[in-house]
Amino acid sequence: MSFVCGGSWKFQSGCLEELTEFAKHQFALNRQHPDGSTERDHLESVERQTGRRPSALDGPPLPYDIAHVWLWFNDLSAARGNNGWGPNALNYQDMAAWMMLTGTIVRPQEISAILMLDRLWMSEQAKATAAARKAKG
User: Three-state SS for 63?
Assistant: First the structure.
């Protein structure tokens, strides 16, 4: 898949790849441990205690040209439903309602990017759930 980068609506794969790498790093930092804390919490605690910033806190930068897609994804994700077994994936109906309520105009390529981010997020949630089950025995 490709995405816009560099202020042009010509699609370039590098920009979406940068967003993907940024998102993977953020999702990994936000992964919850069985005690309810996140990986980010643990690393920031190390930083506070030692005065040294763990390199794992510093990941790829958010690509400026498509930062809005990341913000939109987070906005949609914060309102996602739950089916009793875990979080629901975002869907077109969720996005259509969000666009209508916020007045946001989203291009088809941006919708694809949001759905790609959601697949990554759901995958990270599945890993966290599996780790929690394994920790419980």
Answer: coil
Domain boundaries, the chain: 3-25+61-136
User: What is the spatial distance between Cα 12 and Cα 1, in angstroms, rounded to a whole number?
Assistant: 9
Q: Is the model's pTM score more than 0.90?
A: no
Joined together, the tokens standing for residue 70 give: 């990341």
d(CA 106, CA 17): 20
12-43 exposure pattern, b = at least 16 Cβ within 10 A, e = fewer: eeebbbbbbebbbbbbbbeebeeeeebbeeeb
Q: Enumerate residues 6+ apart whose C-beta is below 8 A from 80.
A: 87, 88, 89, 90, 94
The model's pLDDT over 99-117, given as tens digits with 9 standing for 90+, comes to: 999 999 999 999 999 999 9
